[in-house]
C-alpha cells in the first residue's frame, strides 16, 4: 500500500495529451508530408489525412467508451482487452505489441540518428545510436516523471519549429498562388523508385503510421490520477489539435514548393521554414519523444502482463520499487531494445509495428461492438458512442492493414493466433470478470429463444441431458462411468440431491467434487439440492420447475442402487416424467459383473408382430438405440440387436425388420439375432454382453427389472422413451 501512495500520478495534460500529441507529430510530419502533398496534391493529401484520422478517431472514441466503463489498470490497450475478452486474448495481443513497441523504439532511434548525421555527418552512426539509447533509457529508468518533464521540453521545441513555419509563411514563403498549387497530384512516386509512379493507397500507406500514436497516453493508464477522465480527454484533444496542424501544414507546403520539389526533396519543410535549425531540432525532438514514450509504454505493458502471470517469471516482472516504477520490466525492455539495435536494418520487419497497432485498434473496436450488442446492464460508459463508430473503426482498421501490406497483415494475425493458442493452454487465472461469460450466456439465450420458437420437435439436435436424482453420493460414484459415457461429449449430467434440511450440507459437499470430476472429463455438469423428506416430491417438483427453463434435462437417470425408501417412489417419478415428456433410464447393475469389459452391448427389441414394418412406428426403442450408439462410440464396443418371437413364421420378417432398421437408422450395428422362444428363457441364454438395454412398459416394476438382471447375469439398462427421440432422424 505504501508503494501505491508513493507513486507519482499524472494528470491529463502530462500523462496523456503530451505523449500522444508528440507521438503523432513525428518524423513523418517533417520528412514525408511534403512528399505526400507532392504526389497526391493538396486535395489528395487532405483526403489521406482525413481517412487516416477517421480510422484512429473511431478507435479513440471506442477506447474512450471502454475506459469510462471499467476500472482500468496498467497496460493501456492490453488491460482494456484483457478485462473485456480475457487474459488469453489480451496476452495474444499484448505480447506481439510489446515486441513491436520495442522495435518502434529502435526505429525512432535510427530516425534520430539520420537527423543527427545530417548535421554532423562525421559522427559514427553506431555510436550515435548507443548514445541516444543510453540517454533515453536513463531518463525512462529514472522515473516516468522525468520522462514527462523531458517531453514538455520537446513539446516546446516542436512548437517553436511550427512557429518558424508560421514566420516563413508571414515572410512570403507561399509564393505559389492558389490557382497554381497542385490540387490533385499525378502520383509520380519517389526517388527510391526513380519516380516510377505510385497510387493513392501507396501514398496513404506511407502517411498512415503518423496517425497511429493515439495509444501513447493510454499506455500510462496505471500511473494516471483519473484514467477514466484523462484518457478520453487527452487523447481526443491530441487528435483534434494534431489534425489541424497537419491540415494547415499540408496547405502551407503545397503553396510553398513545386510538385517536383515536393516529390524529390524530403527536407523541403526544413528548407522552406523561417529558421531551419529549429525545425531540425523539432525532427530530433519528435523522434526522441516518440522513442521515450514507446520505452515507457512498452515497459508498462510488460509489467501488466507480469501482474497477470501471462508470461513466465510474472512475479519478477511485476516488481515495483518504492516509487512504483516497474524496474524489472524496464530492465527486460532495455535489453530487448539494445538487441534489436544490433540488427541495424529494420526495414523488413518495420511494417509489423504498424500492423500490431492496427490489430490492437481492431480489437478495441470489437470489444465495444460486443459490449453494445450484449446490452448488459454492467455496460454503462460515461462516454457513449453510436453503434456505427466501432464498426467503422473495425472495418477501416482491417482495410488499412491489407492496403498497407496484405502479406504482413496475414503474418501478423497468424502470430496473434499462435500466441493465443499457447496462452489458452496455460490455464491462466483471470483476476477479474471479463465479458466472455456474458457473451456465452447471451449466445445461449439467443439460441434457446430461437429453438423454443420452433414448433417442430428437435429430433435432429437431440442429445442426452441427464438428470440424476440421488440421496447418496455413493450411488452416483457407482454409476459414474456409465453416466459419463452416455453424456459425453455434447450432453450433460445434472445432479439433484434430495435430502432433509439437516443432511443437505453433507450431501452438498459430496456432490460438488462429482460435478467437478464430470467437468474435467469434458461433460457439462451442475448440481442442486432439493430439501424435502420425500424423494418423489423433490424429484417431481424439480422437474416441474425445470420444465420452463431454456435448457432442461430430457432424461431422468434412476439408479437401482438407491435406498429402499427412495426406490418405492420410482413409480411416482416415472408417472410424472411421462407427463412432462421426459425419457427414463433405470440402471440395474449386476452386483458382481457391473459393466464387465465394456466391449459388448445388447439391445432387446420387442416383437413387431404381425407386420414388422418401420413405417408403422418403431415403438419404445428410439432412446435404447441412441444410448447404445453413444456407448459404442465411447466404449468402442460392438452392438447387437436382438428380438424374440414365439412364432417361427415371424423369424424371416423379424430379420428383415432388424436389417432395415439398422440401414434406415444409419447406425454401425451389424450384428442381429432373432430368437425363437420365451423372452425370459432366452435372455438367460443369449444375453452374453457387458450391458443389456431394453425398453419397458409404462407399468413396469422394480421386481421385474431385477428379475431380468438376475436371469441375464449382466447389468441392465431399462429405457422408456419420451416421444421426443427419433433414431431415424
CATH topology of the largest domain: Amino acid/polyamine transporter I
Radius of gyration, in Å, reads 36 Å
Largest sheet: 10 strands, mixed
Give me the CATH architecture of the largest domain, please. Up-down Bundle
Into how many domains do the coordinates divide?
A: 3
State the CATH superfamily name of the largest domain: Amino acid/polyamine transporter I
Please report the first level of CATH classification, the CATH class of the largest domain.
Mainly Alpha
Beta strand count: 10
Gap from first CA to last CA: 64 Å
Write down the overall geometry. elongated
Q: β content, as a range?
A: 5-15%
Biggest sheet: strand arrangement: 3-2-1-4-5-10-9-6-7-8
Low-confidence stretches: 1-5
What report would you give on this structure?
The chain is of the alpha/beta class and 729 residues long. The protein has helices at residues 2-6, 12-24, 27-31, 33-67, 77-85, 87-119, 125-142, 144-170, 200-207, 227-256, 259-264, 268-272, 276-307, 314-317, 327-341, 350-374, 388-404, 406-424, 436-452, 473-478, 480-487, 504-520, 535-546, 564-567, 570-579, 622-635, 651-665, 679-686, 702-712; strands at residues 465-470, 492-499, 524-531, 555-559, 583-588, 600-605, 638-645, 671-676, 691-695, 715-720. It has three domains: 2-424, Amino acid/polyamine transporter I; 456-585, HUPs (Rossmann fold, 3-Layer(aba) Sandwich); 589-729, HUPs (Rossmann fold, 3-Layer(aba) Sandwich), CATH 3.40.50. The protein contains 29 helices and ten strands. It has a ten-stranded mixed sheet, sandwiched between helices. The protein starts with a helix and ends in a 9-residue tail after the last strand.
Amino acid at each position: 500500500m505504501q508503494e501505491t501512495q508513493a507513486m507519482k500520478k499524472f494528470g491529463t495534460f502530462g500523462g496523456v495529451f503530451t505523449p500522444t500529441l508528440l507521438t503523432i507529430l513525428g518524423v513523418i510530419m517533417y520528412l514525408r508530408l511534403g512528399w505526400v502533398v507532392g504526389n497526391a496534391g493538396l486535395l489528395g493529401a487532405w483526403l489521406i489525412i482525413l481517412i487516416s484520422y477517421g480510422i484512429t478517431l473511431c478507435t479513440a472514441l471506442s477506447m474512450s467508451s471502454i475506459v469510462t466503463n471499467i476500472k482500468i489498470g496498467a497496460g493501456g490497450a492490453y488491460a482494456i482487452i484483457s478485462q473485456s475478452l480475457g487474459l488469453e486474448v489480451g496476452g495474444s495481443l499484448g505480447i506481439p505489441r510489446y515486441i513491436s513497441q520495442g522495435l518502434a523504439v529502435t526505429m525512432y532511434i535510427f530516425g534520430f540518428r539520420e537527423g543527427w548525421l545530417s548535421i554532423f555527418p562525421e559522427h559514427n552512426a553506431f555510436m550515435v545510436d548507443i548514445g541516444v539509447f543510453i540517454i533515453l533509457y536513463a531518463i525512462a529508468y529514472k522515473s516516468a516523471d522525468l520522462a514527462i518533464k523531458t517531453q514538455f521540453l520537446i513539446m516546446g521545441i516542436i512548437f517553436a519549429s511550427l512557429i518558424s513555419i508560421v514566420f516563413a509563411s508571414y515572410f512570403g514563403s507561399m509564393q505559389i498562388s492558389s490557382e497554381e498549387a497542385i490540387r490533385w497530384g499525378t502520383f509520380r512516386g519517389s526517388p527510391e523508385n526513380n519516380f516510377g509512379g505510385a497510387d493513392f493507397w501507396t501514398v496513404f500507406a506511407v502517411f498512415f503510421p503518423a496517425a497511429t500514436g493515439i495509444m501513447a497516453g493510454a499506455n500510462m493508464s496505471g500511473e494516471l490520477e483519473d484514467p477514466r477522465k484523462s484518457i478520453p480527454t487527452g487523447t481526443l484533444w491530441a487528435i483534434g489539435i494534431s489534425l489541424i496542424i497537419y491540415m494547415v501544414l499540408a496547405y502551407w507546403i503545397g503553396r510553398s514548393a513545386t510538385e517536383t520539389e515536393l516529390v524529390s526533396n524530403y527536407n523541403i519543410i526544413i528548407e522552406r521554414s523561417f529558421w531551419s535549425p529549429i525545425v531540425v531540432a523539432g525532427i530530433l525532438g519528435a523522434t526522441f519523444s516518440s522513442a521515450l514514450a514507446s520505452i515507457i509504454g512498452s515497459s508498462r505493458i510488460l509489467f501488466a502482463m507480469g501482474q497477470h502471470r501471462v508470461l513466465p517469471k510474472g512475479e519478477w516482472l511485476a516488481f515495483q520499487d518504492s516509487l512504483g516504477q516497474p524496474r524489472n520490466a524496464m530492465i527486460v525492455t532495455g535489453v530487448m531494445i539494445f538487441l534489436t539495435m544490433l540488427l541495424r536494418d529494420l526495414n523488413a520487419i518495420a511494417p509489423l509495428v504498424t500492423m500490431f497497432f492496427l490489430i490492437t485498434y481492431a480489437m478495441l473496436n470489437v470489444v465495444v461492438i460486443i459490449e453494445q450488442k450484449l446490452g448488459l446492464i454492467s455496460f454503462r460508459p460515461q462516454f457513449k458512442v453510436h453503434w456505427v463508430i466501432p464498426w467503422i473503426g473495425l472495418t477501416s482498421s482491417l482495410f488499412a492493414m491489407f492496403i498497407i501490406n496484405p502479406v504482413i497483415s496475414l503474418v501478423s494475425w497468424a502470430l496473434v493466433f499462435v500466441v493465443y493458442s499457447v496462452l489458452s493452454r496455460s490455464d491462466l487465472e483471470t483476476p477479474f470478470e471479463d465479458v466472455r461469460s456474458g457473451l456465452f450466456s447471451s449466445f445461449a439465450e439467443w439460441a434457446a429463444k430461437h429453438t423454443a420458437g420452433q414448433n417442430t420437435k428437435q429430433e435432429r439436435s437431440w442429445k442426452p441431458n441427464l438428470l440424476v436424482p440421488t440421496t447418496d453420493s455413493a450411488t452416483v460414484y457407482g454409476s459414474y462411468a456409465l453416466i459419463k459415457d452416455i453424456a459425453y461429449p455434447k450432453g450433460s449430467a445434472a445432479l439433484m440431491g434430495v435430502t432433509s434440511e439437516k443432511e443437505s450440507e453433507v450431501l452438498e459437499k459430496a456432490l460438488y467434487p462429482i460435478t467437478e470430476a464430470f467437468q474435467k472429463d469434458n461433460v457439462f455438469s451442475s448440481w442442486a439440492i432439493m430439501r424435502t423428506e420425500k424423494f418423489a416430491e423433490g424429484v417431481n417438483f424439480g422437474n416441474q420447475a425445470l420444465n420452463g427453463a431454456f435448457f432442461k434435462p430430457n432424461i431422468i437417470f434412476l439408479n437401482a442402487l438407491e435406498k429402499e425408501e427412495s426406490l418405492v417412489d420410482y413409480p411416482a417419478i416415472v408417472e410424472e416424467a411421462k407427463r412432462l415428456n421426459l425419457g427414463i433410464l433405470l440402471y440395474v447393475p449386476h452386483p458382481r459383473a457391473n459393466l464387465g469389459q465394456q466391449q459388448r452391448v445388447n439391445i432387446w427389441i420387442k416383437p413387431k408382430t404381425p407386420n414388422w414394418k418401420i413405417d408403422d412406428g418403431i415403438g419404445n426403442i428410439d432412446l435404447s438405440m441412441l444410448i447404445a450408439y453413444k456407448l459404442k462410440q465411447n466404449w468402442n464396443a460392438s452392438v447387437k440387436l436382438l428380438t424374440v418371437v414365439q412364432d417361427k413364421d415371424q423369424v424371416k420378417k423379424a430379420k428383415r425388420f432388424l436389417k432395415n432398421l439398422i440401414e434406415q437408422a444409419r447406425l454401425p450395428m451389424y450384428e442381429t439375432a432373432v430368437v425363437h422362444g420365451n423372452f425370459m428363457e432366452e435372455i438367460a441364454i443369449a444375453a452374453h454382453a457387458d450391458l443389456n438395454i431394453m425398453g419397458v412398459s409404462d407399468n413396469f416394476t422394480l421386481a421385474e427389472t431385477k428379475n431380468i438382471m438376475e436371469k441375464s447375469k449382466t447389468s441392465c439398462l431399462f429405457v422408456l422413451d419420451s416421444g421426443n427421440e427419433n433414431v431415424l432422424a
